[in-house]
Amino acid sequence: MGLLGLGAVLKSGGGLEVSDYDAIISINIFIALLCSCIVIGHLLEGNRWVNESTTALVMGLLTGGVILLVTNGANSRILVFSEDLFFIYLLPPIIFNAGFQVKKKQFFRNFMTIILFGAVGTLISFVIITLGAMGLFQKLDVGPLELGDYLAIGAIFSATDSVCTLQVLNQDETPLLYSLVFGEGVVNDATSVVLFNAIENLDIGHFDALVLLNFVGKFLYLFFTSTLLGVATGLLSAYIIKKLCFARHSTDREVSIMMLMAYLSYMLSMLLDLSGILTVFFCGIVMSHYTWHNVTESSRVTTKHTFATLSFIAEIFLFLYVGMDALDIEKWKLASSSPKKPIALSAIILGLVMVGRAAFVFPLSFLSNLSKKERRPKISFKQQIIIWWAGLMRGAVSIALAYNKFTSSGHTEVRVNAIMITSTVIVVLFSTMVFGLLTKPLLSLLIPPRTGPNTSALLSSESVLDPLLTSMMGSDFDVGQPSPQYNLQFILTAPTRSVHRLWRKFDDRFMRPVFGGRGFVPFVPGSPVERSAPDNQLGTVTEAENS
Amino acid sequence: MGLLGLGAVLKSGGGLEVSDYDAIISINIFIALLCSCIVIGHLLEGNRWVNESTTALVMGLLTGGVILLVTNGANSRILVFSEDLFFIYLLPPIIFNAGFQVKKKQFFRNFMTIILFGAVGTLISFVIITLGAMGLFQKLDVGPLELGDYLAIGAIFSATDSVCTLQVLNQDETPLLYSLVFGEGVVNDATSVVLFNAIENLDIGHFDALVLLNFVGKFLYLFFTSTLLGVATGLLSAYIIKKLCFARHSTDREVSIMMLMAYLSYMLSMLLDLSGILTVFFCGIVMSHYTWHNVTESSRVTTKHTFATLSFIAEIFLFLYVGMDALDIEKWKLASSSPKKPIALSAIILGLVMVGRAAFVFPLSFLSNLSKKERRPKISFKQQIIIWWAGLMRGAVSIALAYNKFTSSGHTEVRVNAIMITSTVIVVLFSTMVFGLLTKPLLSLLIPPRTGPNTSALLSSESVLDPLLTSMMGSDFDVGQPSPQYNLQFILTAPTRSVHRLWRKFDDRFMRPVFGGRGFVPFVPGSPVERSAPDNQLGTVTEAENS
Hints:
Chains A, B: It holds the Pfam family Na_H_Exchanger. Chains A, B: Keywords: Ion transport, Membrane, Potassium, Potassium transport, Sodium, Sodium transport, Transmembrane, Transmembrane helix, Transport. Chains A, B: This is Cation/H+ exchanger transmembrane domain-containing protein. The structure is a homodimer of 547-residue chains. In chain A, 71% of the residues lie in helices and 0% in strands. Chain A has helices spanning 21-43, 52-70, 83-101, 104-109, 111-140, 147-156, 163-168, 175-200, 209-244, 251-271, 276-294, 297-325, 329-335, 340-370, 381-390, 396-406, 415-446, 455-460, 466-473, 488-515, 533-546. In chain A, helix 3 (83-101) runs antiparallel to helix 12 (297-325), helix 6 packs antiparallel against helix 8 and helix 13 packs across helix 17 (415-446). Residues 1-19, 452-487 and 522-547 of chain A have low confidence and may be disordered. At the A-B interface, helix 1, helix 3, helix 8, helix 10 and helix 12 of A face helix 1, helix 3, helix 8, helix 10 and helix 12 of B.
């Protein structure tokens, strides 16, 4: 527990003295490190190799090393990886912010491709890694691994971590690429966790078609109920804020309701044994589509930046944490009786990860390009390489799942488990550091950076809210629809497009009047909204044509 | 630990299933209750009796009752009061926001009076309650209480809780009253905690002049070092943000740095065994004076509302928590062998609290009025009554201190301790509910509400930031200084005023050029600051004359 298990703080016999200095020291170190990471990350912003994640990881490693040296390897309290901290406190703000800030237009326009990559792709990757591990691990004589363990390994190493790449990609310059990498990352997170869950509950003894069907059924059930819960909570928050018509001075109330409801959706999902990641992601999308437009201007600025800030802090915290945890001495000792094995294992896993990802990115891109109309941008080969590369990194989700599978409460006594944990840590560190460092050069090689004035900077100097509106609406405004062409592409595209049109009608006629949204907020005289009326009208016009 | 001890969540043998449903359920209940409190508080806003604190308290009581019924009095896990939660997570945002949003001009103009009420007044109240308890408790045959216990009781019941009153007072209509009640509340929080700490470390066996001197010395040491640490951290944050010149798109970084540094100041203070409350309060003041002016416009809006929101949530959480904890069955059982005693004790304590407060409010107000020049507003008798009333409520600080003194980790087996805890809970509930409910009617009786257009609403419709600037500068702008009058008032007032003038010079010449502040931020072309240039110039002018 480390940071959270502050049970002994302030509970000494006499007075409010702090008895558990360890916990207080931990918190102080962490906050100081977070601050330094932010400052260093800012200073290194122009650098073509480093980004904030790598900085945090390196600083975590360094601090872990210093702590190990200071305590002579005895004290590893600050180092124990806690799944709670990860799943209850760090992941929800990151995923919620992802949903809240996503360019909904781009996301939903590429919805099919994203689902294809995120769900089907992850399954393909899972199958390949599982089969590969079953075939290759046995030569290494790692220890007794069962079918369930191999399946779990497949799920663990199917969980990608695209944060590094997203930090480098520019949302305005390469909207298609960004939305694909981003969307796939979220769906992949959810898929791999749901997959892992389903595997753990699988009765492997009687593996037949019925079990497989059951598995698929459970997978779909989790997917849809989780999404539904997120949408429902988001709509409820929109309805409450619209009905109550909080006055202008109630920004605190509005922001509180939004924050609390977002977290409630995640915790409800946990309570109902669903996928919190999916729930909170869709809650974020619904909140940015309805709730966000029902609040005052200052609430909008505040929520946008607060959610982004919390997510930012959580991300850095995470990388720091992984870096520190990597040096946890206990598991290294246990695995060190055969030091070569974890390294060989990691190499095999890294190879499998690369093959497994290539096995779905290129075929699925081809499929996705087939279904696209000629006017719409296709995924070029260079872009396919970037998508492939973006998902090679393994991160905190892999570590959390590995700890869940191979340890109990962060500790293990079994050698094979210790080897699996160390291998996971090596894979995560290597992929994040080496692949992560190569991302910027690779990108600037494949996509030459544009010169000339930065368009987004010109846009946003007009108003504080303008960039926000732009980001909420999506940056591309192709209005005209060419006449339908009766060919394969059209047949494949038509359903998505008519669904989108139907949704627009439904949204305008039934949803917005009830739940609010842009152009449907009751006008409060003298409120700050009045100032931005031209923006709003503009918004309504473009929206009617675009959304 | 309840909410924080999530150790067992997600750590079941197989998969990511949630095993410790209790913790998840607790979090869900708490978040749902927080949302309902906000909504109900909003709906009842026009009501002249109720406010958000009482709503939260009542809802906490109701929920505690329901949980007791559902679990047949067995499960009290959600009810255990945790000092950690209080001192590490809930108190810092409340106090920091207090410092951040305080009208510095009003606060420093009335600095002497505030210190008089907050520090000297609390000490007077402490002495009277201690002596009264020593005299009156012995007749009740409560049990064996030592001198140290009586001193602790004095400190516990000297800690006021003026949140209720502040929710009702209007900062714009009665600035003097607001700043006095508010400032006293903060200084009182710090004084009582420091006092309690000092008592616990006191060697009562050898109580003589030297020990008393030592006590006073320690008290002063804590006071000044804590303040210094807060100021230093605040200045550091201002310096970092000014030096780094974060670009326009780095709002997340700026907000992160401000949040993290604020919390760091509190945790550092805990680490160094100082008063975190004082530290974080002064850190808030310095941040709003320097750091806040160095960041971008959207960062300003965001930080202002984020800090207010976090404080708002923490406050409601606190009252919910106290309400739930009140029904903790264990201590009631232990104390119920003599059910009349806690009630008699509570009545005595309430009487002592009222007397103890009257004993310093009226004399000190007289003193403070003496030292005021004729032009400056004096504290009228009606205002003195309100100040007296505002500090009668006892709140979470009292409960936290009582738990610290009379239990170990929230549990006690000794009857006299159980009686003291139940008495504290009764005093807190009674004073918050009954006195709290009477506050609004009392205020509207003593200060008839103004009619006509709300000036602050007119002001703030001009710009999002205007009300903020106003609130940061203080609402009163009396510029001219009349010629000095050589009388008692002048002699008493002169030091404060010349100190203020010296400070202004020092601030303009040395502090602002280094740490930034209004009018000293480097101008970034094309940044949102450009838009608010007229505001800024106005700010600089009024500031040069006023600050």
